[in-house]
Give the backbone structure.
Amino acid sequence: MTLRVDIWSDIACPWCYLGRRRFDAALAQFGHRDDVRVTWRSYQLDPDLPERYDGSEVDYLAAAKGISPDQARTASETVIAQAAADGLDYRYDRLVPANSLRAHLLIHLAAATPGIDVGAVVEDLFAGHFTRGETISDPDVLAAIGVRHGLPAEAVRAALTDPALAARVRGDIQTARSIGITAVPFFVLEDTYAVAGAQPTAVFARALEQVWSESHPTPLISVEQSGPACGPQGCT
């Protein structure tokens, strides 16, 4: 028996990285963690963002949200502080705003390749974007990440122009729209239960326990040997 978790996220989303870290912490504590099957789903906060934005993350946020640079800087500092509390080192001074489509193509390639740890690829992409200051639309960066996790560089480069993988990305985004997802991260458990946003670890832990108990009821334990009873084949 398994518990399915679909996670919609965007590599360019700081709350998605933090949400992943908190979910992973809850999963590590979960008694049935080996029976949890996580599927990473694509979502793009800004599909029109250039492959590489000509400016800093603060510049981009100010322009995209229609706020002042000071407001954008304050908002960023809030995210950085929360991430630090969970052990993440966000370096907005080196962060490169970039379109995340190619990063999603790499994730789908990893998911379609047997033996690849998709979660590890996702983690590396997040770290590359928010900590190492790498450009997540750069084919060389993506090839290097793929190679670290067992994907041939040529396969990664081919994936970046693969229409079938691009269709999977679009499919994830369309599914998100169809079920009412308008912000990420968004976690769906067993196609029924939803956890929206980078919730505290305790919230994810409770969700895992609740969904497991409801979808995997504990078998009844007989307190005595069976007594006389009737069934389809007659009575005994």
